[in-house]
Design goal:
Blueprint (H helix, E strand, L loop, with lengths): L1 H20 L14 E8 L11 E6 L2 E10 L10 E5 L1 E9 L5 E10 L2 E7 L7 E4 L14 E11 L10 E7 L9 E8 L3 E2 L3 E4 L10 E11 L6 E2 L8 E2 L2 E7 L3 E9 L8 E8 L2
Parallel strand pairs: 1-7, 9-18
Antiparallel strand pairs: 1-4, 2-3, 2-5, 5-6, 7-8, 9-12, 9-13, 10-11, 10-14, 14-17, 15-16, 18-19
Length: about 280
């Protein structure tokens, strides 16, 4: 037994010595927050789905910050926009396409100060539309409130992908659309083109005695300035019908950006209407 204890003690000493002399470190760079900002880039160009315009390499101020092995689209990189640290002031952004990652797709500049920002590329020729992210989120009662907060951004074009569609009104839709349970529309926010609302509280509906804090299967709609529900072509042969954004899930106390982007189109093939979301916390 004494021999075993002695061996264990010796092994412990070796481990301690090994840990002390072979430290595992990770490379890092200190960030001067007085001179830096955080930016996430969102790819909202008004085109139908196509891999030819997808981004494969991203540079800020001629420095590569992100790259993928295959082409991707929608929000860059991958399906969730991520922050990158950039110097405050004027920032040059370059986006490339193709498997060789050297075909310039987009190049422009924007300006940021201190804090966090979201930059939306809504045109291949115009500067990004930039909004400053909230420094503090709206406060609610953790027990009594059942609300999420939504910031609405309008980047929707007409069929030509050049002319803005105009003022949009984002609303939640409740009800089943029947006589016994008709649709009810709940106002959330309105925005002109290249405008963003404040974070607006939206009441979630509890389900069950024990609630997870998340409402699922949510539906949102958009109205134009004349009070008409947005219409779209559901298929190559289908007539214009009411446009809806379905299948959303929002959590209590969470904050989201809803960015409306794409173009209306004159038929099913040329339209690209998207209501995309970014979770802020």
């Amino acid at each position: 037994m004494k021999t075993i204890i002695t061996l264990i003690s010796l092994f412990s000493v070796i481990l301690i010595t090994s840990c002390e002399t072979n430290l595992i470190t990770f490379g890092s760079t200190d960030i001067d927050q007085a001179k830096s900002a955080e930016v996430r880039l969102v790819y909202d160009i008004p085109v139908v789905s196509t891999t030819t315009l997808n981004i494969t390499r991203l540079k800020y101020n001629d420095q590569m910050v992100s790259e993928v092995s295959t082409a991707i689209g929608s929000i860059f990189p991958n399906s969730a926009a991520k922050y990158h640290v950039v110097p405050q002031g004027t920032v040059k952004v370059d986006a490339y396409t193709g498997t060789t990652k050297d075909v310039i797709q987009y190049s422009n500049t924007f300006t940021v100060g201190t804090g966090k920002y979201t930059a939306f590329i809504h045109s291949l020729t115009a500067a990004p539309y930039v909004i400053k992210d909230a420094d503090l989120f709206p406060y609610g009662d953790a027990w009594a409130d059942t609300t999420a907060n939504i910031q609405f951004v309008n980047l929707l074009y007409q069929s030509d992908g050049v002319t803005p569609y105009g003022t949009l009104y984002l609303k939640g839709r409740r009800g089943a659309g029947t006589t016994a349970s008709p649709y009810v529309y709940i106002n959330i926010a309105s925005c002109g083109f290249k405008e963003a609302s404040a974070l607006v509280p939206y009441k979630l509906v509890k389900s069950g005695t024990i609630w997870s804090g998340t409402e699922t299967g949510m539906v949102f709609v958009v109205f134009d300035a004349a009070g008409n529900l947005l219409k779209y072509y559901p298929s190559t042969s289908g007539a214009l019908t009411d446009w809806t954004a379905t299948g959303f899930s929002l959590g209590k106390g969470r904050n989201y950006i809803f960015h409306m982007n794409g173009k209306m189109g004159t038929n099913y093939v040329t339209q690209a209407i998207r209501l995309s979301t970014i979770t802020l916390n």
